Model the fold of this input.
Amino acid sequence: MRCIRAFVVRVLASLGALLLLVTFTPLVASYAKILAGPWHDPGGEVLVVLGGGEFADGTLSQDSYLRAQNAARIYRAGGFHKVLLSGGGSPAAVATVMREYLEFQGIPKEAILVETGSRSTRENALASKPILESLPGRKMLLTSDYHMFRAIRAFHKVGIQIESRSFPDAIKRSRRLTGRWPAFLDVSLETVKIAYYFCRGWI
Done:
């Protein structure tokens, strides 16, 4: 009985410490910065944007929306000639929905390419490779800060020469008290995925 009581106390103490760390320290933002890697905004000719999730009605989830929003902003700033959107899904492929958003934002149709068969970051890389090999110029990978560590390595693993261009997603959300726990859950799940990709030899 004492062992059980001691175990429960340790678990509750650990949960309490975690609650304090996530809620009242910059833990989430600091970890997201590590996952984002070098923080810079390099230019190029081809911008590769990875889709995230989508809701049952076919609208973009927050991560997909933010990626599309940043892609539109970067393209309008000038320099890039093509935007490749990568991501499948249902009821509509997330890349298709993101294309509609970019077109609504004034990005020319002829500048947008879509890859709609992938369902994971590894599949993003595999399906994007033949498209990227046909496009000249410097390639940049755009995705959320917490996703970049795994994404850029997955693309490099399949032989794609590409550079990172992450944007503050979890970092920005964690600045608000109400956003810290959702951001913490995202970076925690991403950590599990990173470990899985390492074990499979995909990064």
The domain at 39-200 is CATH 3.40.50.620 (Rossmann fold). The chain has eight helices and five strands. The chain has a mean pLDDT of 90.
